[in-house]
Amino acid sequence: MVKIEKQDSNRTNKPKTQEEKELFREDYGCLPKPVLVEKYGKSWRTIEDWALENGFKRTIKKPQIIVDKSVFHETSYEDLLNLLKQYSKASEDLFAAKTVKIKIDTDEPVAIVFSSDWHLGHPGVDYTKFDNDINSILNEKNVYMYLGGDSIENMISSKILCVQRQIDVSLQHEFMYKVLKKMESKILAFGTGNHTLWTEAQAKIDSMRELASKLNLVYTRDGGLLNLTVGKIEYNILRRHQFRMNSSANLTHCIKQMLRLENDDFDVGVIEHGHVPAMEEFYYKGHKRSALKCGSYKILWDEYAQGKGFTGVMALNPTIILFPDKFEILSFLDMYQAFGVLRNLLG
Ligand SMILES: [Fe+2]
Ligand SMILES: [Fe+2]
Q: pLDDT 10s digit of each residue in the chain, 347 long?
């Protein structure tokens, strides 16, 4: 017969002597829970009770994740602020000046042709008329040109790229460079428009500014004031590619609103983009002004104009004659009329 010894229910490894307590204090302080449970043969709760009775505390540290932050590069508030300020200044420097000053040193009257919206590259442009007109400007004495925006089609807006008809955009730019080079001596200033600014919208590169700086032309982006001195007389010309408050029934309306809202100190206001040419002379605050609206060479056909019902587009370039010794502006809707009058004035 196997004798079973009765287990003493009070049997415990509970530390009693000072020496056992000291040993337990050390174990409780630093050993992991499973090791303590195994070593003392008691549940974790019992072990915790013993520690509580004796006022022992665990000193074991929880695992800590230590990241060496020296490998990370943090940019300070001040660094970012300085960067933004420098970016702001550089961006402003890249932008065309709002006012440019040009002087034509002469004692004879001159004609300034305002031409824009050539849309070179689109198949609906009348290239024969375009070529004839720019050669006429080139060969006409005392005639200069202010070339505005949308000179090339440059249809690279992502929404309409796939359906637009145009020759390769790189060829448009190459041809534009050739035109500017050909007309270099005649161009007073050169600007851009919404079509030509699509390159900037897509790629942050103002391609017309690049062309202007390559040929050292005065660049006025999408608008600005030209303070033009002819001989002894100063004329102020405000040109914009676009301005709000357009009216297809009153074509010069937005130029009058430019006077009222933007700058009431210009003698000649020029607006582009609408493709329907117009010219009007009028008085505002007792001062005679000229309002000029440029035509377009996209006259053979234009899917946009036809689709939307726009009519009245003509390849006319409004022109003014300015005098060097008295303040006087003669305005013409058609540059060829101005050329005829200028020839008579020059004798
Ligand atoms: Fe246009
Ligand atoms: Fe335009």
A: 444 444 444 446 788 899 999 999 999 988 888 999 998 889 999 999 999 999 999 887 777 888 888 888 888 999 999 999 999 999 888 887 889 999 999 999 999 999 999 999 999 999 999 999 999 999 999 999 999 999 999 998 776 555 578 999 999 999 999 999 999 999 999 999 999 999 998 888 999 999 999 999 999 999 999 999 999 999 999 999 999 999 989 999 999 999 999 888 899 999 999 999 999 999 999 999 999 999 999 999 888 888 888 889 999 999 999 999 999 999 999 999 999 999 999 99
Q: Is residue 81 part of a domain?
A: no
Same domain, 146 and 219: yes
Question: Which one of the ligands is nearest to 116 CA?
Answer: 1
On whether the CB atoms of residues 166 and 123 are closer than 8 A, the answer is yes
Q: How far is the CA of 138 from the centre of ligand 1 (A)?
A: 23
Q: Is residue 225 part of a domain?
A: yes
Question: How many domains in the chain?
Answer: 2
CA dihedral 164, 221, 91, 225 (to 10 degrees): -150
Angstrom distances, CA of residue 122 to CA of 26, 265, 273, 304:
90, 37, 15, 12
The pTM of the full predicted model, rounded to 2 decimals, is: 0.80
Is residue 13 in a domain? no
> 335 lies in a domain?
yes
Ligand closest to 294 (CA) is 1
Same domain flag for 241 and 142:
yes
**Ligand (nearest to CA of 240):** 2
Q: Are residues 266 and 341 in the same domain?
A: yes
How far, in Å, CA of 109 to CA of 264, rounded?
Answer: 25
Distance CA 33, CA 41 (A): 12
Range of the domain at 45: 18-54
Q: Which ligand is nearest to the CA of 223?
A: 2
The CA 294 to ligand 1 mean position distance, Å, reads 10
